[in-house]
Amino acid sequence: MKQRILTGDRPTGPLHIGHYVGSLRNRVRLQHDYDTYILIADVQALTDNFEHPQKVRSNIMQVALDYLAVGLDPAHCTFVVQSQIPQIAELTVFYLNLVTVSHLRQNPTVKTEIEQKNFGSSVPAGFFIYPVSQAADITAFGAHVVPVGEDQLPMIEQTVEIVRRFNRLYAPVLTEPRAMVGETARLPGLDGRAKMGKSLGNAIFLGDTADTVAQKVRGMYTDPNHLKVGDPGQVEGNPVFAYLDAFDPDPERVEDLKAHYRRGGLGDVKVKRHLLEVLEATLEPVRQRRAAYEHDLGYVERVVREGTLRAREVAAATMHDVRRAMQLLEF
Ligand code: TRP
Predict the structure, then answer these.
(1) 137 CB under 6 A from ligand 1?
(2) Ligand 1 mean position, distance from CA 40 (Å)
(3) Class of domain 4-187+297-325 (CATH, top level)
């Protein structure tokens, strides 16, 4: 039997090339070797968007479209809408007994996000405990492997702690997951900022037209001191080269371009033209598949619904084991 993967995204916006490099590409590769569950985490998305349910609702299908467009195949992947798996909410309630408030307060990912989102002292309790609910996501499906970016590692650590605690206290019914960190940590934004994000306005989306991508690449931040073509340029902190590292299938060519740029004599226009070509080699097929699925939204909905129903049975089996282990009644 294949090992099981559980991974997912919050549907708060369309997916961008940062998601592609950080996780989607990896998932497409892994789907053949693992029984893959992909969670469209709308419940988690609501923890910091509860005032905007429409935003979450409308992005569920957008994210599903992005998944299919990058080549995630329903024959290998089970797409799951989180809010349709009530067992995740049930497990969350029981797991909450196994963690302390002070421990949750120390979670580095949540800490950073609380600062970024300017919650101040009004952190919603639902947001504060989302690592526990993420432990429920992972264990509900008995995932062995969770492919994640670096920033999500504390979530897996928290899950492992809950699993060990549960199994020791009640009965060894939960599967202990392990994290699998992808090779490219994070793609910077078009503006050179460390993170690409929809709200930062510095992203290339998988659904962008070829014209939009061309325009975005032309406007990318480069070395601000590289004024004349003949000037030596800086590669470090230059997002154009970070993208080439991530997308150019020929690393030797990238090294040559970097050397030339450092030396001087290689203009930004020329490197960007090359980058656009390399990006489009990935994005054009994605765009075409996306367009095809957009014309058949009925199919996309069916894939999501059938995946979710299948997943619910797996979660129900876990819940049954958990109830027995915890000596809960089950009528
Ligand atoms: N927290 C993840 C994110 O911010 C999304 C997510 C929810 C997830 N549940 C998960 C990822 C379970 C991996 C496993 O994108």
Answers:
(1) yes
(2) 9
(3) alpha beta
Ligand 1 midpoint to CA 9 (Å): 5
Q: Among 9, 109, 156, which is best to mutate for testing ligand 1, by the most ligand atoms less than 8 A from CB?
A: 9
- Other beta carbons within 10 angstroms of residue 232's beta carbon come to 13
- 10 C-beta closer than 6 A to ligand 1: yes
The secondary structure of the chain, three-state, reads CCCEEEEEECCCCCCEHHHHHHHHHHHHHHCCCCEEEEEECHHHHHHCCCCCHHHHHHHHHHHHHHHHHHCCCCCCEEEEEHHHCHHHHHHHHHHHHHCCHHHHHCCHHHHHHHHHCCCCCCCCHHHHCHHHHHHHHHHHCCCCEEEECHHHHHHHHHHHHHHHHHHHHCCCCCCCCEEEECCCCCCCCCCCCCCCCCCCCCCCECCCCHHHHHHHHHCCCCCCCCCCCCCCCCCCCCHHHHHHHHHCCCHHHHHHHHHHHHHCCCCHHHHHHHHHHHHHHHHHHHHHHHHHHHCCHHHHHHHHHHHHHHHHHHHHHHHHHHHHHCCCCCC
What does the pLDDT look like over 6-48, one tens digit per residue? 999 999 999 999 999 989 999 999 999 999 999 999 999 999 9
Topology at the third CATH level for domain 210-291: Tyrosyl-Transfer RNA Synthetase (1.10.240)
Mean pLDDT score of the chain: 95
Residue ranges, comma separated, of all CATH 1.10.240.10 domains in the chain are 210-291
Ligand 1 centroid, distance to 182 Cα (angstroms): 14
Domain(s) labelled CATH 3.40.50.620 in the chain stretch across 4-187+297-325
pTM, two decimal places: 0.94
